[in-house]
TrEMBL record:
GO terms for biological process: regulation of translational fidelity. The keyword Ribonucleoprotein does not apply. This is Aspartyl/glutamyl-tRNA(Asn/Gln) amidotransferase subunit C. Keywords: Transferase. One of its GO terms (molecular function) is transferase activity. It comes from Candidatus Nomurabacteria bacterium GW2011_GWB1_44_12. It holds the Pfam family GatC.
Amino acid sequence: MAIELKDVEHLAGLARIAVSDSEKELLRHDLEEILAYVSQVTKVTAELGAPEAGLPEIALATSGELRNVMREDGEPHAGGVFTEDILKQAPAREGNRISVKKIL
């Protein structure tokens, strides 16, 4: 796919970057190479036959099991365990709360 200089100028405008005339030609060449690579990847993906999930079967077979790496929601410690330690560091307190200057 041939990229024209006006396309590079349009992309630079969208990205809000200043591009000199010499840089435009370099970017045009780079964008053409990127699009050629994406075209090759798309062709290989189509040849492999993508399953309904949208990934090539080969990628699913080699990528391993999908799993959630987030921790379970829960209480990491009992409530109030660190309250006194935190309040000792505050400049002023009212009961079990940090006292701050009224700003409104």
